[in-house]
Amino acid sequence: AILERLVHCPVHGTETLTALCGELEDHHRLRTGHLRAQTKLTLQAKAACRELVNDDKVEGGKLFAVIYRAWSGKGQHVVVTPDSNAFPAPLIDKATKYIIPFLVAHDAFKDEMTIHERSLRTLSQSLPVAEWADNVRGLGDLSLGKIIGETRNLDIYSNPAKVWKRMGLGLVDGQRQRRVTDAELAVRMGYDAHRRSLMFIVGDSLLKLNQDGPYMTYYKREKARQLTKVLGADMRITSPKDGTVRVLKAGEPLPLFLAH
Fold first, then answer.
1. Angle at 42 between CA 199 and CA 91, to 5 degrees
2. Is the Cα dihedral 37, 41, 42, 44 positive or negative?
3. pLDDT for 47-61, tens place per residue?
4. Other Cβ atoms within 10 Å of 182 Cβ, number
5. Would you state the torsion angle of the CA atoms of residues 163, 151, 7, 4, taken in this order, to the nearest 10 degrees?
6. How far apart are CA 188 and CA 184, in angstroms?
7. pLDDT confidence of 203, banded at 50, 70, 90?
8. Contact 129, 9 (CB under 8 A)
């Protein structure tokens, strides 16, 4: 409904709105780039901690958490806390020297991300659909700005289905969009995990904040319909990871991911 409302906005082709969408795209791209950089820096820091505890992933994660929570963020040292007692002091000191550069670089992106998020919120309030979006619990200015940041100028889409495909919600040859190994099919799929993830987060927020609203009502009705449909006959489930096929017998409990 959100994507369809955006496409059918009567003034989405104006030059002013085109420029506005361009600004939203720029801020969204920059914010996304900063977020990915932060993620990579965090993973590198965790990997460094893991190496110091014999490649134990669990202990490495705990060591990273101790240092990250205790780090002042303003200097090159760790403030001693009760959590630090979980590891020997020499290990804490060594790990701190290893990962402080990563933490400094990680936090350097925070202010920039805040600026871009503020711009996304402010600019999205100027969209023709903003007044309607304000009345949708769970959407918010930031989420709206992110969606337009991904779809770009909606004048390039002739119908809502093409917007759904852009965001990973469409059907290709009767199949849901997903990551595939076949090169030709992958081009037709046009799947982007980041865009699909964005819509999953937005959808999850809509459901959680609309327990008595139309989105949750529709979700429950459709879930019940699909549940009846699935439980009435055998169903083949293909794993998106390795392609293995599992046959779900009629009446057999649904796996959690299918129930939702």
1. 150
2. positive
3. 999 999 999 999 999
4. 9
5. 50
6. 7
7. confident
8. yes
- Give the model's pLDDT for residue 60: 93
Q: Which two tokens stand for residue 116?
A: 């871009």
Structure tokens at 137: 């619990």
Q: Decide: helix, strand or coil at residue 235.
A: strand
What tokens appear for 36 in the block?
């990915």
- Which amino acid type is present at position 31? R
pTM above 0.85, yes or no: no
Nearest alpha carbon to residue 123 among 142, 107, 136, 110: 142
- 39 pLDDT band, cuts 50/70/90, is very high
Beta strands in the chain (DSSP E): 171-172, 175-176, 235-238, 245-248
User: How far is residue 94 from each of residues 40, 90, 103, 212, 249, measured CA to CA in Å?
Assistant: 21, 6, 15, 53, 55
The token pair that represents 166 in the structure block? 């852009």
